[in-house]
Each structure stands twice: as C-alpha cells, then as structure tokens.
Automatic annotation (TrEMBL):
Domain Cation efflux protein cytoplasmic: start-end pairs: 207-283
Entry keywords, A to Z: Cell membrane, Membrane, Transmembrane, Transmembrane helix, Transport
Protein name, as recorded: Protein p34
KW Zinc (keyword) present: no
One biological process term in Gene Ontology: intracellular zinc ion homeostasis
Its membrane topology: Multi-pass membrane protein
GO CC list: plasma membrane
GO MF terms, alphabetically ordered: cadmium ion transmembrane transporter activity; ferrous iron transmembrane transporter activity; zinc efflux antiporter activity
Cell location: Cell membrane
Family designation: Belongs to the cation diffusion facilitator (CDF) transporter (TC 2.A.4) family.
Length: 296
C-alpha cells in the first residue's frame, strides 16, 4: 500500500471522528447551523471512502483494456464529491428555511460550540496535510478532499463566530442565517471542484507555466535534431502525457535519432514527475518551421 492510499484511509478515520464530534455538538445545542456542519461531515466521510477507492484503482498498472493506466478514476471521485456537496447544500437550505419559519432556542450553546471547535481544529490540521501531500504527489482525489475539508473549516469558523452572538443577543434567527451562509459557501465550493475535475476528464492541457518549461527542455536537449512541432500535453491524475513530432536530418540513422529521443525523455522526466512521453520522428522535409527551435 503506497502513501497516497494510507492518507486516503487516514481521511476515512478523521472523517468519522469529526462527524462524531459535530453530531454531538448538534445534539447538545439543537442548532440548525451546527446540524449543517455535521451534515457536511457526513459528505466528507462518504467522499473519503470514494477517494480511497479511487486512489486504490488509479495505482493499478496499465493492462490490456487500459493501456494508458487507470489514473483518470481519481477525477470521477472528485466529481462525485462535488455532486454530494451540492446535495448537502440543498438539504441545509431546506433546514434553514424551516428554522426561519419556526425559530428554536439553543440548549447548552457554549458546550456545543466548544465540541464543534475541537472538530474544526482536527479538520484544519488534516486538510493541510492532504493539500500538501496531494499537490506533492499530484493526486487530484487527495487534493480535492483536502480543499473540501479546508472549506469546511472556514464555514465552521464562521458558524462558531455567528452562534456566539445568539446567547449574548437572544437573536435566534442568527442560527438559520448562519446555516444558509454555510449552504451557499459549500455550493460555490462544489461547483469549483466539479469544474476542475471535468477539466481533467476532458484532457485539459497542462498550465502555461509548465508548457513553457516543457518547450525549454526540448529546445535545450534535442541537439542533433532540427525542430519539434505539434506539441500536445494533458493530465490524467498523477501522470502528465507529452507528445510531439521531432524533425531530424533525413540522412540520420535510426540509432542516432533514437539516442536523441532517449535524451529528451530523460530530461523531461527529470523536470516533470510521472511524465509519459511519445515522440514521433520525422525527416527534414516534414519541418514546419513554426515549432520549437533546437538550441545547439
């Protein structure tokens, strides 16, 4: 079991602990805002399980039916998380509307807020770990899970700040108002998460900064060739696919052309982790004079 899968299992455990704390806070207070916080934690737990299954499948090697690997499965997990976030937001809005119509008095507010604050602290620490490691290991599922947890932390802090005023002011409407704010915030989070994941499923190119670096590496390490053109890139989970056409002198031997390709692959893989590179070698009459100029 690799580190990504271990982190995914850790998310399931943390999700269960945080949900238990937040549901306890809700039962202590009867707060709709804290109920919304607990409901989002159920979503966190479900998506943590989905993320674990996704990273487990994505780690499987390429096979006959999936020659390019199983990396894209992580995007499905992230899309599922976005959908569940939106469903949770709709449920929260419904409860907030009911609480506006029939305001209720909070019980044991300070004790409940203290338990909820502890849950938020646990979430904050774990989200920081997931985001850092998800980016470092280029795992969309882990990074998405971390960003979702971080959003949960922000909303929890907002809820706690708002509910502190309820016992001080007697304004019971603050409780459903904070729940509605939580719902709107996680709706926005869910939309952003789905948008990013769909980009991965649609073979979106690497960021412009990375693309510029790829061009530079090719130009600096293709000595002996004439040019490179038709460069294409895409992401699939942790893997970056790079393919391009390399123009060489027509009289160059296959062995020499192959040596240039090997040199390019080593240079690109040292610059970009988990790169999968395809190079199509062409003779000089195929030059387009509009691609990457080789720097000799």
């Amino acid at each position: 079991m690799d580190k990504i899968q271990k982190l995914a299992i850790g998310s399931i455990f943390i999700g269960a602990v945080v949900f238990a704390l937040k549901i306890a806070a809700y039962f202590l207070t009867g707060s709709i805002a804290l109920y919304s916080d607990a409901l989002e934690s159920i979503i966190n737990l479900v998506t943590a399980v989905a993320a674990f299954l996704a990273v487990r499948v994505s780690a499987q090697p390429a096979d006959k039916n999936h020659p390019y690997g199983h990396h894209k499965v992580e995007y499905f997990s992230a899309v599922l998380e976005g959908v569940l976030i939106i469903v949770a937001a709709m449920m929260i809005l419904r409860e907030a509307y009911s609480a506006f119509a029939q305001p209720r008095t909070l019980d044991m507010p300070l004790e409940g807020l203290g338990v909820n604050a502890l849950a938020s602290f646990v979430n904050a620490a774990w989200s920081w770990i997931l985001i850092r490691e998800g980016r470092r290991m280029r795992s969309p599922a882990l990074a998405a899970d971390g960003r979702h947890l971080l959003t949960d932390v922000y909303t929890s802090v907002g809820v706690l700040a708002g509910l502190l005023f309820v016992p001080l002011t007697g304004w019971q409407w603050l409780d459903p108002a904070m729940a509605a704010v939580v719902a709107v915030n996680i709706l926005w989070s869910g939309w952003g998460l789905m948008k990013e994941s769909i980009g991965g499923l649609m073979d979106q190119a690497v960021p412009e900064r990375t693309l510029t670096r790829v061009r530079e590496v090719i130009a600096l390490n293709a000595e002996g060739a004439i040019e490179a053109h038709d460069l294409r890139t895409r992401h699939a989970g942790r893997v970056t696919f790079i393919d391009f056409h390399l123009v060489v002198p027509g009289a160059m031997s296959v062995t020499d052309a192959h040596d240039i390709c090997d040199r390019l692959e080593r240079a690109l893989k040292s610059e970009i982790d988990d790169a999968l590179i395809t190079i199509h070698v062409e003779p000089d009459d195929k030059a387009k004079h509009a691609g990457i100029v080789v720097l000799s």
